[in-house]
Prior knowledge:
Helices cover about 60% and strands about 5% of the residues. A 7-stranded antiparallel β-sheet has the order 3-2-1-4-5-6-7, covered by helices on one side. The protein has about 525 residues and is an alpha+beta fold. The protein has helices at about 5-20, 20-35, 35-45, 55-70, 135-145, 150-175, 175-180, 190-205, 205-220, 220-225, 225-230, 235-245, 260-275, 330-340, 345-375, 385-415, 425-445, 450-465, 465-475, 480-485, 490-515, 520-530; strands at about 75-80, 85-90, 115-120, 280-285, 290-295, 310-315, 320.
Amino acid sequence: MKETLRQSMAWLHTWSGLLFGWLIFAMFMTGTASYFRPEITRWMQPETGKPATLAVAAANAEAHLLKVAPKARSWTINLPDDRESVTRVSWRPLPEPGEREGRGPRGRGFGRGSSAELDAATGAIVKPRQTRGGDFFFRMHYQMHYIPALYGEWLAGAAAMLMLAAIISGVITHKRIFADFFTFRPKKAAQRSWLDAHNLTAVLALPFHLMITYTGLVMLMPTLMPWGISANFPTEQAYYAAMFPRYKMPERTGEAAPLISIPQAIARAEQVWGGGRPSMIMVENPGDRAARVSVVRHSGDQLAYDGGLLLFDGVTGALLAAPPEHGPAVVTNHVMFGLHMGHFSAPVLRWFYFLASLAGCAMVATGLVLWTVKRRKNLPDPARPHFGFRLVERLNIATIAGVPAGMAAVLWVNRLLPVEMRGRATWEMHSFFIVWAFVILYVCLRPVRRAWVEGLALAAALVAALPLVSAITTPDRSLLHSLMTGDMGMVAFDLTLFALGLCLAFGAYKAGAYQPTVRQPRRRAVEAKAAA
Length: 532
């Protein structure tokens, strides 16, 4: 019989979703966490304080640099926004007499510079514990780990292409896609309930799923399809130089001149941008007549993910250069970046990103489970499935329970390892894979039903207990302390962990309460019918 378009799309939807489903689930989970990357980093560095206003942070950074490096070759100030509490400053010293810039006495770059992290509110030097913070989940989302970043991006790109194919084929397959949005029958047969859950979580945020998958592919385009760059630029460096031009800085004159204050430079930049906010200040030749101040715009200041750089005279404050106007293709590319990253979003929209992404995690998870539920009843002997079926079933459990357990382990290790331990950031990252591997091994040794219950219960316990672990190990980052000091960002973080733990615990409870329908194996049913 000739296959219809819908049947072809159903086949494509099933297999494109399954083959990379476990990797896609991990990418969705780590990407979901990345929407609160600054908050995760703050939680993992309890030595830092509360966020401060931009003006206060900039003034404190300038005061520190004037104190420790008034005659440096250059300053760099990475300003915090309203979600961060640390200002990062660095400086390069002037070359020694007879030393050429960029070459030291042994051929090395002179004065590789010094850096410091400052409390944004007070300007005091802080020394937070070594951690990758939320950056680990962000990098894991699209570059993987333990493999070169290029290979990780290829793998993420392949997963994203299959995800996009699964979404489009799923829309074509489901004739009643909008009606399914209002249909959920948890007490029906297993296949019907899982199908309803899959449809609901898919349709609930369908535009978001399409947008986030497509824009993710656009972001990886230079890696997946580099031929456009190689056809138009002699080298990759030339491409980036054209995309992000740098201004040539003058040499020092040796003539002292007062530098405009950093708040003044920020005010001038905000005036040019019409109220935009900066993220980084770079000062060349501070205290010299040839001083220059570069102000980089915050990447989340507008929908288009394009910081842009303004160059000012460091003495007069006059605007010397501004970024060129981009063409439609570049602007479109920047908008795609901005939509995917979500840095432009206000708190309410950011929470929508987070919840819609959680729905995406549920969509992938229910799709993986539905694959086994739908096929079990068609097996010759459902009680003794073949190896391929058992492999998919175990990988489903190991991924759906193991990824959140591994992510929670990163936060546990952050609190439990000694603060001064060398390589503690590396072991935080190792813990993600160690715990995930443990869950894989454990569920392979347990009956399927018990594996679901115990795997989800482990993940629930690891996630929900984190606020308590934090309160015991770091009282200054406890939920009670955050409430008393009005640090609502950390209050929301702890409450979110507890809520996610409850969701996982509910999943473990439902897995334990599930009563499968007992069906006679097909082979025995046929034999019984023949005997009759």
